[in-house]
Amino acid sequence: MSTTQTYAVTGMTCGHCESAVREEVSRIAGVELVDASASTGTLAITAGAPVDDAAVLAAVDEAGYQAARN
Amino acid sequence: MSTTQTYAVTGMTCGHCESAVREEVSRIAGVELVDASASTGTLAITAGAPVDDAAVLAAVDEAGYQAARN
Prior knowledge:
Two copies of one chain form a homodimer.
Chain A: E1 3-10, H1 15-26, E2 31-37, E3 42-47, H2 53-63, E4 66-69
Antiparallel strand pairs in A: 1-3, 1-4, 2-3
C-alpha cells in the first residue's frame, strides 16, 4: 500500500523549476513518485510508507523553493 | 574589438530559463559573453565578430524560447 502526501510550494514558475523540485525530492529514501506542478504550486509524493515532512521541506528548500504540508 | 547584439526573448520566467538560454547560445562559435535576463526579457551576446542572427534564434528556440533581434 502506498501513501500520498501533498504540499504547497511557492516560487516554481516553469518546467525547469518542477524538474529541480522533482530531482531533489526523488532522492529521499522510499519515495516512489513525485509530481510537481508550477501552475498549481503543488507537490505530491507517493511512497510505500509515510515520508518525514522535514526531509521533504529540506529537499524543496535545497531546490530553491518553499514548501508547506497541506 | 567586440560587438554586442541584443534580442528580445519571450517565455523566460526564472533563473533556470536564463541558464538554459545561456547554455545554448554559448555554444555558438565566436560567442564570448552571454547575458540572459528573465526579468527584462533580454539577451545580449558579445562576440569578436558579428554572430549570425539565425544561429542565435535557433539556439534560443532549442532552449525552448522565442527570440527576436532588437
